[in-house]
Amino acid sequence: MGARVDDPFVTHRNLLFTVAYEMLGSAADAEDVLQESWLRWDGVDRSLVREPRAYLVRIVTRQALNHLRSTARRREDYVGEWLPEPLLTSPDVADDVELAESLSIAMLTVLETLTPSERAVFVLREVFDVPYDEIADAVGKSPAAVRQIAHRAKDHVAARRPRVRVVPAEHEVVVAQLVAALNTGDLQGLMDVLAPDVVSVADSGGKVRGAARRPIVGADRLARYLIGGMAKVEGVLVASPMWVNGQPGIRMELDGQLVGAVSLTVEEGRITRVFSIANPDKLGRLEEEAALAR
Q: Which H or E run includes 197?
């Protein structure tokens, strides 16, 4: 993209990437959307644009909606469970509680259960506080229809989102306990940090041998699966803390090479959800912190 430094697209690029990523759950797809949006913006007579930020959000929203609809079939054909592409984020992202919550792997998986229009409306309204008339313009519906969609989407998300907000420091303590248990093969240590009804979902895209293709439910089953799986690995598998999508998470390395990212949902000091991403195609954004804004 050959834009000048003072071009509004450059000024708002971090915001536009965040909008696209929250709508798509894929950094690679979000970058594609930004490329398509830049081509459209580059052909616009800027003298006719009164509010570049709103105009650019509208372009990105429309391109993201097109992308969502065109990739629906790709998701249906995906091998095993589909999880969002994780981002390495700065600890500072957690300071914006609403942004961090909306970026979490747990929330993005909930957003996957919305229709494309519901997801666009929810993200623009709840995360970026875009006025209803601007959302209506972006999604091609009336303001009244958008209000109805927003209400429906908000209720849908509220029924499925994590019930408890966890302070990052508490989350970090739980992550540290899990990391220690994984690195020492401590079965009891794992049992102590997992909620009895914990659910673990793994996304390997069918490209990692031995990865679970269906959710694993229950602390005992999950702890034994993790300890057994790590014991079978040829090489040195090491877990370490890493900020993933605005929350403390885990980085997995095999012989010094990144092989996975883990995001967790914590309630009352125990892990209730484990999201493991090991598909090598989804690990490209974990070496450099993502530049995000809202």
A: strand 194-203
